[in-house]
Amino acid sequence: MNPRISKLLLFFTFLLTLSACTKPGGVRVLKLGHGLGVTHPVHTAMIFLAERVEEKSEGKMIVKVYPNQQLGSERELVELLQIGSLAMTKVSSAVMESFAPKLQVLSQPYLFKDDVHREKVLSGEIGKSLLLEGEDFWLRGLCYYDAGKRSFYTKNQPITNPEDLKGLKIRVMESNTAINMVKSFGGSPTPVSYGELYTALQQGIVDGAENNPPSLYTSRHYEVCKFYSINEHTAVPDIMIISTKWWNILNEDEKQWLQEAADESAVFQYKLWAEAVEESLAFLEAAGVTIVYPEQEGFRQSVESMYEGYRESQPEMYEIIQKIRNYE
Predict the structure, then answer these.
(1) pTM, entire model
(2) Please, are residues 162 and 186 in contact by the beta-carbon 8 Å criterion?
(3) Over the stretch 73-112, which tens digit does the pLDDT of each residue have?
(4) CB 234 within 8 A of CB 109
(5) Per-residue pLDDT tens digits for 177-231
(6) Which of 115, 131, 161, 280 is most buried, judging by how many CB atoms fall within 10 Å of its CB?
């Protein structure tokens, strides 16, 4: 198709979507789609966001939430935002790396000193600037949601130090950062789709994986993996994003209502996530999972070579990493 005709079709699609999402009487309606279930803490936070928008606007602005991939997969939802057919979605910052390379910094292992340091970075000038990194691709971040800390779970033995990973095939996401991290620990990174991971663990295609406690619980991977080693190597946040095609048509009041509601929902979601982690760990222990808390220092030292590699290969990334690590 002629590129000019294609752009015109996208423009008219956006206009039709826009007209369909503005009710008579001037009520602004934004559609928010995501792939999580209705019991997930992030979905609950989105409902909270929608309620706060309606309250703040006195009914002049409404956010409609569509869970369970009703409107598409995570990747499809992002694409719908880019053409303006959908207003908002939640996406992992790891997925956003494809559109905003600087966001890969948030996937680095042991980037933050502790939870307080992470909160200061994400709520400060560095975090706020990273939220806007995707604007050239029509994606604007509104706030961060807690997606937990990832740790190793395995079938046959606990992981108490990096040496225990030698010779083990560990499932990782399709992420160069995750692959390099497992290599630095001495393990064998093996990308497997999340939907196929249970079977891969059963059949011995992989010896283990890594994820946060609620995901280990809800995926039922604990039925195969009876060892969970809480080394908390990464804390990759989710991001609530809005299409810039939608953001740019909102008036100043609407932008303020939405941003304030997003910020408040983030505070609410962090609390919900902490509760979900506590409940999940209690369930896993009751289900017979051996939970260990290895010393992190050995793991932290193992990934220093990754950071030094950035000094030469990606000096701009190395500079951001250093700013985050030194942030007070």
Answers:
(1) 0.84
(2) yes
(3) 888 999 999 999 999 999 988 888 888 889 999 999 999 9
(4) yes
(5) 889 999 999 999 999 988 899 999 999 999 999 999 999 998 999 999 999 999 9
(6) 131
What Å distances lie between residue 119 and 115, 122, 234, CA to CA? 6, 5, 14
pLDDT (0 to 100) of residue 318:
94
Provide φ and ψ at 64, rounded to 5°: -100, 125
148, 215 Cβ separation under 8 angstroms:
yes
Distance CA(66)–CA(46), nearest Å, equals 10
Residue 197, token pair as written in the block: 């991971």
Could you tell me the sign of the dihedral formed by the alpha carbons of 178, 183, 185, 191, in that order?
A: positive
Q: Which long-range contacts (CB under 8 A, 24 or more apart) does 52-55 make?
A: 52/260, 52/261, 52/264, 52/265, 53/257, 53/258, 53/261
d(CA 236, CA 229): 18
Helices (H) and strands (E) in the chain, counts: 13, 12
Please state, in angstroms and rounded to a whole number, the distance separating the CA atoms of residues 283 and 213.
Answer: 10
Q: What one-character DSSP code corresponds to residue 2?
A: -
- d(CA 8, CA 3) in angstroms, rounded, equals 9
Please, are residues 11 and 83 in contact by the beta-carbon 8 Å criterion?
A: no
* Direct distance between the N- and C-terminal alpha carbons of the chain, in angstroms, rounded to an integer: 52
- 146, 155 in Cβ contact below 8 A? no
Q: List Cβ neighbours of 2 (8 Å cut-off, separation of 6 or more).
A: none
**What are the tokens at 211?**
């994820």
Structure tokens at 81: 């935002």
CA distances from 292 to 140, 158, 236 (A): 39, 7, 22
> Can you give the length of the chain in residues?
328
